[in-house]
Write a structure and sequence with these properties.
- The complex is a heterodimer of chains A (about 325) and B (about 180).
- Chain A is an alpha+beta fold and about 325 residues long.
- Chain A has helices at about 15-35, 35-45, 70-75, 90, 115-120, 150-155, 195-200, 255, 300-305, and strands at about 100-105, 110-115, 125-135, 140-150, 165-170, 190-195, 205-210, 215, 225, 240-245, 280-285, 290.
- In chain A, helix 1 (about 15-35) runs antiparallel to helix 2.
- Chain A is globular.
- Chain B is mainly alpha-helical and about 180 residues long.
- Classes of the chains: A alpha+beta (about 325), B mainly alpha (about 180).
- The interface of A and B includes residues 75, 83, 186, 283 and 288 of A.
Chain lengths: ~325, ~180
């Protein structure tokens, strides 16, 4: 073997800029060791946000494999912006998530309005790592941050005559381009979803205000959205502006649009196909091969009892 | 000859682009992406081949009609193989069940079978014998249009526009070939 010691060429020398960047990176790493270990977790992988929420971490006992921040924030169904899942991220800047007032009305002791920032202060936040399954056949695993909907329900004091909870996404043509299109809009607006009150009170159901430790991105439904992990994604309504307690089953948007294909319950169920496609398997974002879909998206133990007497084929 | 080679490369170009996007860029939902991409290519080329006779007085591309049609078939093959290999994971029972069960799937399947027939009989000897059956392309055009609409949860403005373009082409085509549809 021959050594060519002093034969360095221009291309062999690290440019000063890169050299300095490397030093900066090392310094940042050193700072992180001092600051807190969570930062290291984030630095280890690129493209992760800096956490700005205080919350109790989910220990992820099932060892679900998380989707990346990039995947979760760039593949979104948010028809108020576009029907194209890859287009939403670019368009979502028109949404102004702060200040954001939520109206609570219907069968409650006293209807009220509250700003999301004040609402969040009422509850301690916790992380929930959940599977998320879209009715279209794709899925992901998301570390949401939020609080249990049941806590909000107790806080808002509904009357005993309330049997269902109904949610509405903001209606504002300035912020949501597709709402401007009137009859040419993709679906009727404002978007409406609902739950039976016992479903809403289940401890899996949360109102989410963040993911990966950071305030929700607009495209994920900022500033506050519902997460019902055992139901198809369209139940998990985004950018909530109004919450009402009602006595009758609310007519949710997709059921209204196509009642033969989408129902009120929308529980994840590999046995009950969508009329146009099978629901037996799902495509996890970022993976080429499909995996089997589980009944109630894998949360049968926690929620199966809610539907003990329900014909799941009829009430899809 | 140069034109033919140029057109061949142009029509083949989407294939490496698709490969690049799936393998290098790693799109989030590859199976879905392959469906949309190959389906779009196939539909566009199908309508393009049938439109050639409408514009022949302006630009006569009729001599390339078979090649363009075969490329439409090529993208339809990718679409079908995506269904069979990646989506159904070679589960033949599943493919048969879905094909019999779901209008969305069997519309695509019928179209694909017709295209197979047309591709096989597009070569000289067989074409002489079977070319009259190539009118089945009109059935395919109607079926794939319905199939395309059914693939969406809701139509976007863009997709309404595509649909409009399709209807315009269909209108002119119908006028041109009235005899075929109405006569006798």
């Amino acid at each position: 073997m021959k050594f060519q010691r002093f034969n360095l060429k221009e291309k062999d020398i690290t440019p000063e800029e890169l050299f300095n960047n490397r030093r900066k990176f090392l310094k940042l790493g050193a700072a992180a060791v001092v600051a807190n270990s969570a930062v290291i977790d984030l630095l280890a992988k690129d493209n992760y946000p800096t956490s700005n929420l205080k919350y109790i971490k989910d220990s992820n006992p099932q060892e679900l494999e998380l989707n990346t921040f990039e995947q979760i924030t760039s593949y979104n169904n948010f028809y108020e912006f576009s029907t194209g899942k890859e287009k939403v991220k670019k368009l979502a800047h028109t949404l102004k998530p702060s200040p954001w007032s939520i109206t609570v009305d219907g069968l409650v002791e006293k209807p009220f309005q509250i700003d999301v920032s004040d609402l969040i202060k009422q509850f301690s936040l916790e992380e929930r790592i959940y599977r998320f399954r879209c009715v279209e056949g794709w899925s992901m695993v998301v570390p949401w941050v939020g609080f249990e909907l049941s806590k909000f329900i107790k806080y808002s004091r509904p009357l005993s005559s309330a049997k269902y909870i109904r949610f509405e996404t903001l209606y504002d043509e300035e912020q949501f381009p597709d709402q401007r299109r009137g009859v040419f809009g993709a679906i009727p607006y404002p978007y409406v979803e609902g739950l039976r009150l016992d479903e809403a009170m289940n401890s899996l159901t949360i109102l989410s205000v963040g993911l990966y430790g950071k305030t929700l991105e607009n495209q994920n439904g900022a500033p506050i959205r519902l997460i019902v992990p055992w139901k198809y994604g369209f139940k998990s309504i985004k950018s909530i502006a109004k919450i009402s307690y009602v006595s009758e089953e609310p007519l949710n948007t997709w059921q209204r649009a196509t009642p033969k294909e989408y129902g009120f319950y929308a529980n994840v169920n590999p046995e009950v196909d969508h009329p146009r496609w099978s629901q037996a398997k799902e495509r996890v974002l970022g993976k080429f091969f499909k995996q089997k879909t589980k009944l109630f998206n894998g949360y049968e133990k926690e929620v199966g009892h809610l539907y003990a007497d329900l014909d799941l084929r009829k009430y899809f | 000859m140069i034109n033919r080679v140029f057109l061949f490369i142009l029509l083949l170009l989407p294939a490496p682009v698709l490969l690049y996007e799936v393998l290098v860029i790693e799109v989030n939902d590859p199976i879905k992406y392959i469906y949309t991409f190959s389906g779009t290519c196939a539909i566009v080329l199908l309508f393009f081949t049938t439109s050639l006779s409408l514009i022949k007085s302006k630009v006569n591309l009729l001599k390339y009609r078979r090649m363009i049609g075969l490329f439409a078939f090529f993208y339809a093959c990718i679409h079908f193989l995506n269904f069979f290999v990646f989506d159904a994971e070679l589960d033949i029972d599943f493919v048969i069940k879905e094909s019999l069960d779901k209008p969305f799937v069997y519309l695509g399947m019928i179209s694909f079978l017709i295209l197979c027939f047309m591709a096989i009989t597009s070569f000289k000897k067989l074409y002489k014998k079977y070319n009259k059956y190539h009118r089945l392309i009109y059935v395919v055009l109607v079926l794939v249009t319905i199939h395309f609409v059914m693939a969406q949860k809701a139509l976007s403005m863009e997709q309404w526009f595509y649909l409009f373009v399709i209807l315009v082409i269909m209108y002119f085509k119908f006028n041109q070939r009235k005899g075929l549809f109405l006569q006798r």
